[in-house]
Every structure is written in structure tokens, then in C-alpha cells.
Amino acid sequence: MSDLPKCPKCGSAYTYEDRGMFVCPECAHEWSKEGIAEAADEGLVVKDAHGSLLQDGDSVTVIKDLKVKGSSSVVKVGTKVKNIRLVEGDHNIDCKIDGIGPMKLKSEFVKKA
User: Which residues form the Protein YjdM C-terminal domain (predicted)?
Assistant: First the structure.
């Protein structure tokens, strides 16, 4: 078993080292050894569409109409979401939207309120 880190983007265990950089063959993500130390110090870092850091308990505003998968509902532009929770993964915001219910959002479609 290798002691190389898993890919921070997709979680793949099939990473390899190339000229001081770690590379993921599945998603083509590259990161440095220093990036691992910084990520370990900072914990989970999530930024909104404008680059502002998000934290648990923040309020955000949706910046694009979002279709709800498996439903005919749409989350409209300008919908304010309160008390978000940050989680690992592709959809890194866990929240509850009034009128729709619990939902996961991508941070690239929200801005800090």
C-alpha cells in the first residue's frame, strides 16, 4: 500500500508523484506537497462564486436559477438561504430552503449574503 495522499478533488487513491507534484490520473488534478500541508492546517475551505470564504452558519443568496433534480421545482435567483452547513464533496453546501426542503448546493452558484 502506498503512502501517497488521495486526490483532494475526487478522492481517488490512484495518485502518483511527478517532479515534486502529486497527480490524479482520474480527474487530472495536480497539487504540490506544500498544498497538502496548507489544506491540513486550514481544514475545509469553501469559497462562493465571488471568492469569499464561507463558514458554517452563514447566509447565502442563489445567483442562478437552479432546477431541482427529480422535481419540476426551481430555486429562483435571489433566494436567500440561511444557516448553511459546509460538507465534503461536489455539492459542498448542505441547507434547507423554504418551500423546497433539505438540499445540497454547489458553492459556485451562491454568493455570501
Answer: 46-113
